[in-house]
Every structure is written in C-alpha cells, then in structure tokens.
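User: Structure tokens for both sequences below?

Assistant:
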Amino acid sequence: MRCNRLILLSAVLLPTAVLAQGSYKIEALKEGPPAGLAGAIKGALDAQGYRVTDDQGKSYAEFWLRKSVPAKGKPAGPEAAVLFPVLAEGELLGALRFPGEGHDYRDQTIAQGVYTLRYGLQPVNGDHLGVSTYRDYALLVPAGKDQALANLASKKLEEQSASSAGTNHPAVLMLLAAPNGSKGTSEPSMVHDETLNIWGAVVPLNLGIKGETAAVTLPVQLILVGVAMN
C-alpha cells in the first residue's frame, strides 16, 4: 500500500507536459494563415502551413513559416553557442496557433490563440546556465501586439513575448538544427529525443540572401512538446 502511494505521489509531482507526452505527427495544413494577424505579417507567410497532432489525432499546434526570412549569408554552421548566426534577433520567422492550451519550453502555460514567432537568443547570464547547449529560440508574441513586419528590438520582443504567458519571462520554443539525415529535405517530420523527452517539428526555413536569385533552404527543428530539464 505504501509503495502504491509513493508511485502516485511521484506521478503527481512530475511536470504536466511530461505526463502529457505520447506520440506526435505532422502534416501539411492546406489552409492559409489565421485571422488576427496584422496584414503585413499575414502577407509575408506561406499560404500552406503545418499541423501537429497527438496520438489521438487531436491538433496540438498549427504553424505557418515566412515565405522568405532575410539572412546575413548562407548557412555555414554554428558560431560558439549560436546555431543560426545568419538570422537576426527579433526577425519574423512565422506564426503559430494553439487550438487549445499550449506550453512553452519552460512549461509556461500558453492560452489558446494566435501568436507570431520571432527569432531570439537566450541571454548570457547566470539565470540560464544549463538550460540548453545553444541559445537559439523562437519567441511567441500575441498576434494582437505584433503589428509590423520589421524586426523587434530585444527588450520590446522579450516584454511582448512575456505577455503570451502572463509572466515576466518570455514565452519560448527551443530552436535546434535538424537531425542528421533530414538536411536538404523539404518534407516535414517529427523527431523525438528520448533523452530530453522532447518532440521537434523538422521543417524547411526558406532564407532570402542578398545576391541570391533563389531562396536557400535551411532545415530547422522547432521544439513544440517538452520542457527544459533544468
């Protein structure tokens, strides 16, 4: 009897997001960007998005990527702890809709609704030691507060993103490199890191590079399910 109580107590103490994890799939969403986005932002997004569903077939998240993300040059690998140095802080990457309650990488609750996704870097300070190896994130900003396509300054981005979670910390989704074997493919996929217990959507991010006539595809992994262990 005591053993059963201990097992039950352990389950209660586990983070909600961990308990909720099953398996996830991704599919093309033949639906345009959602209402609620500012006109300039909506017009910059692909007409087709992606839907991530759980093992019951229920939609967990839907997102649309930017048609062409301005980049400083061709991807050439990480620099120190930054995976995507060709991207600029505060620039628009896409938009995301949570049909129901969602969670970010810090396990903050994100309300049902529409959010923009903007590129950001984890600050280099003692508050974030051990959270992740790399500093790249996609920050969620409520669609109603993000009205212009221009890059957002770091301070404003962090403040507006924090309102997505109703806290004083930005709402963040970890952004990782695509796993080996998925580079160069345009087909979306979901990958599960069993060690970290996270699920990532591997999708092609199209980069617009000055002097290049065609977009350069950069496969990225957007962590949608799972939380930081520290």
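Moving on to the next sequence.
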Amino acid sequence: MRIILLYVFCLGLILNYSYAQNKKKQIEELNFSLDSLKIVHTNTISAYIDSLNIERDQNSKQKINLYKLQAEIEILTLQSKNFQDRLNVSNLEKSEIKKELEVLKEKQENNLEGLHYYSLIVNKDDFILKSIKSKLFNYPEKSTLSEQLRYTKSFSELKECRLWKKDRISYAFVIVKDTKKVPNTHSHAGEGDFAKIGDQVTFRCYILTYIDTDFIVYMKWNNTFETCFEGVDDNSENIDFRLTDLNNDNQIEIWYVLESSCTLGVEPSRLQICLFNNGILNTMESITNYPELYTDNDVKEWIKEGSDFSINKFDANFEKLSQEFKAYAVKLRNINLYGSSHYYR
C-alpha cells in the first residue's frame, strides 16, 4: 500500500515537474513571440516614421517648388506688365515721332535740301522787278491808269516773284496777271460802255534764270480764266505757292493756287491747283466753300442740274501722275478751301 502511494506521489511529482517544464517552455516561447512582435512593431513604427519623414520632406520640397513657381509667375507677371507699359510708351513715342516726322515733312516742303527761296515784294521799287516788268508786261501797269481808263484798257500786274538758288544757279518764278478787255458779244449785253466790254484774265507764268547779270526766260506757260461780263470785274488772284520734291528726284516741283470769281457774283469762286513738273503743267479744278451758304454737297447738286462747276477734277496730265501728287493737290485745295477771304479757315 505504501509502495502504491509512493508510486502515486512520485508520479504526481513527475507530472507536476513535466507540467512545470511545459509551462516554462510555453512562457519562454510566449516571451520570444512577444519579443519578435516588439521587434516587428518597432521596425514597422520606424519604417512608418521614415516614410512619414520622407513624405513630409517631399511635401516640403513641393511647397518650396510651389513657392518658387509662384514667385516666378509673379516675376513673369511683373515683367509682362512692364513690357506692356514699355510697349504702350513705345507706341506713344512712335505716334509722337510720326507726328514730328509729319511736321518735319511739312517744313521740308518749304525748305528743301540745298534750296532756299524767298519772295520779292511785288510792289517794291526794285531794279530786279523793274527789269522783269519791262520784259514781261504786255500792257501798262494797272497803278499807272486812272480809274476811268481802268475799265476800258487792258493792263498787266506782277502778282508773284520768287527767287531761289540751286546748284549755284539762280532762278525766279514769276506770275504776271494780264487783264484783257474784250467785247461782250452776248445778246443780252445791254447798253452803256461797261456792258460792252468784259475782263478776260490770263496768268502768265515764267521760270527765269539769271545769266550774265540779267534774267532770261527759261520756261513759260499760261492759265486762262473765263471772261466776266455785264459790267463786273474779274477778281482773280494767286493765293498760294509751294516748292516741293515729293518723289525725291532732285527736281523742283512748283505749286500755286489760283482763285477766280466775278465781282458782285454770289456763286463760289473757282480754284485751280497747279503743278508745274518736268516741263508739264498739271491742273486740278475745284471751287471755294462758304459755310452756311454753300458747301461741296450743295455744289454737287448744282452739277447734277447742269452747272459747269468741278470739285477736285484732275486734267489729263495730272491723271498720269502718282497718287502722291494728287493727294498733295487735294491737300492744297483743303488749305485754300475758303479762298482769299480766308473765311472760316
């Protein structure tokens, strides 16, 4: 019995020891697993932190790049605005320069390189004028006539005398106005001396050269206006003069503007814009205006009804010239739109 009890006791010890050993082993294995989990956890946390730091670093770099890009955009915007401002200033300067060039061009028209001209006062008692008058006058001078003879005799007047020097040669441009008395052949001429005669006006134009202390006729041409009858005088004058070289061929272009009307008339005055170029006379016919009384539109209606007025009508010679010359002729007409009265100019 005791042996059995001892056996059972030993068996219990053995079982207890075996259980203890198994428990210890389980605890060790559990501790090892825990340690492994701690290592995995630590490594995972470390990897996450590293990844988070990398991501934060990348975000930081992206933010820095974004700030740089925004700064570059702001700089480009400022540069663009600055360029636009400079472009606006440049366009303004270009516009101002263009205006200055137009002004210079206007001045050059009357101040050609190598060409300087001036006008002699036509009623001045000058030996040059006396020489010109003695050679070019067809009739006695108007100022020598009495008022009575003035209505019955033809007479000449010196209307223009311009001198210039080019290539060491002296020139003169002269306009002589001849008022010729002609008989009135109209059936409605009426009675009396004044009704039987009329004024026929011719502007005789000359280019003179100064040779051996004397002026010699180099070129000449005429402009003739219709006759004024019924006891009224012709009121024709030259009202403008220009020298140009529009096509830069070093050849002087002579421009002058003639105005013609009959006194006591109510119609517009007639204009001739004349260009003498390369030995050829070119003319443009037009009329003057009188604000609030008649304009070009009024005259156009008259023309439709059969009136013989013309507005900026170029002759055959002028039609052969370039648009540059025609534009300048129209410009001179616009400058002299209101004629010698300068009304509303």
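User: Anything stand out in the second?

Assistant: Residues 2-109 form the longest helix (108 residues).
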